[in-house]
Design goal:
With 130 residues, the protein is an alpha+beta fold. It has three helices and eight strands; from the N terminus they run αββββαββαββ. Strands 1, 2, 3, 4, 5, 6, 7 and 8 form an eight-stranded antiparallel beta sheet that branches. A hairpin with a 2-residue loop joins β3 and β4.
């Protein structure tokens, strides 16, 4: 899992795909944080992405850097503990201008049953599960 987090952080931006009814939705994200041994991401509960995750927690992430890419699929599980929100915001202090652990809007999720595939045009794919 550490290799997945490192790739996402080094890429800087990754793209999270959700489903909105029968339509796919993709948007840029930037948070990738390990808390209690799990990979977490963060968003706002008021956003459409949070509503889409609530309706269907199966997501996919894709990122590209240095001629290599990753596809990460899994299920997102909301962690409503304050400690998880604080840990995320401490890891990304620039988010504190928009989010607060007690604002009722900040939501963090961790990946469950995740599979990451690292690929490129020149190397065999590598699969990591966690």
């Amino acid at each position: 899992m550490e290799q997945v987090v490192q790739f996402l952080k080094e890429a800087g931006v990754y793209y999270l795909a959700t489903m909105d009814g029968d339509r796919p939705r993709v948007r840029p994200f930037g948070t990738a944080h390990v808390f209690e041994g799990k990979l977490y991401i963060q968003t706002g509960k008021k956003k459409d992405v949070a509503k889409q995750i609530a309706a269907n927690p199966k997501v996919e992430v894709s990122a590209f850097k240095d001629g290599k890419w990753i596809r990460l699929s899994g299920e997102l599980v909301e962690d409503d503990r304050r400690e998880a929100r604080v840990s995320m915001l401490d890891a990304y202090p620039e988010l504190k201008a928009m989010y607060d652990p007690d604002d009722g809007n900040t939501v963090v999720y961790y990946f469950k049953d995740a599979t990451a595939v690292f690929a490129s045009f020149t190397e065999a794919p590598k699969v990591v599960t966690f």
